Amino acid sequence: MNLLIHRKESIILTTIDLIDKYGIHQISTREIAKKQNITEGAIYKHFKSKNELMLGVLDYFSQYDSDLFLTAQQKETTEEAIIFLVESFSSYYENYPSITAVLLSLEIMRYDEALKSKVEDIYSTRFVFLKKIIQKGQETGEISPKLSSEMLTDIIIGTCVALCARWRLQQYSFSLRGKCLEAVNTILGSFIQDKINPQRRESID
């Protein structure tokens, strides 16, 4: 059983590497089998179809989300929670560059009916979680309400995804984690109440 589990995960990892190398449209079970030194039929012992394999890739891509969300919820401030999420995701991507090919292929995958629901679930879950954190910060007065929680969520996620794309295009020539943290700290610096109005902290104290 352990050997079967190992082979299944190995097929998923090979698929991710091939998406990174050739792009999502160029992936075939023949090429995956060749890289694995197995027959195409062996792949179908683990996955009933190519779409089921791609669902496995998406599950692998998002496997840490629940644990990260749980830890973020335990942070004392909204700022700490957001920084934790950005640092965790960007560190994971920086240490596993190939997985970012999946991140940047989500929009393409969404047009496949067999994958659409899973892709939208991943994106929606991440978006809604971050939005709720920001909403909570606005309700407690930590985050300025001058932008809606939805817009601020879009800015943070969009900035990090754009940096990820540039990181890949520039052959991983800079620290993705460093750039994402720098960008998000800059964004939050404009919306964290105590940073845009230091006198507010003094009056509270």
Automatic annotation (TrEMBL):
The keyword Cell membrane does not apply. InterPro entries: DNA-bd_HTH_TetR-type_CS (IPR023772), Homeodomain-like_sf (IPR009057), HTH-type_Tx_Regulator (IPR050624), HTH_TetR (IPR001647), Tet_transcr_reg_TetR-rel_C_sf (IPR036271), Tscrpt_reg_YsiA_C (IPR013570). PROSITE patterns: HTH_TETR_1, HTH_TETR_2. Residues 28-47 bind DNA. This is TetR family transcriptional regulator. The keyword Coiled coil does not apply. Pfam families: TetR_C_4, TetR_N. Keywords: DNA-binding. GO terms for molecular function: DNA binding. It comes from Dehalobacter restrictus. Residues 5-65 form the HTH tetR-type domain.
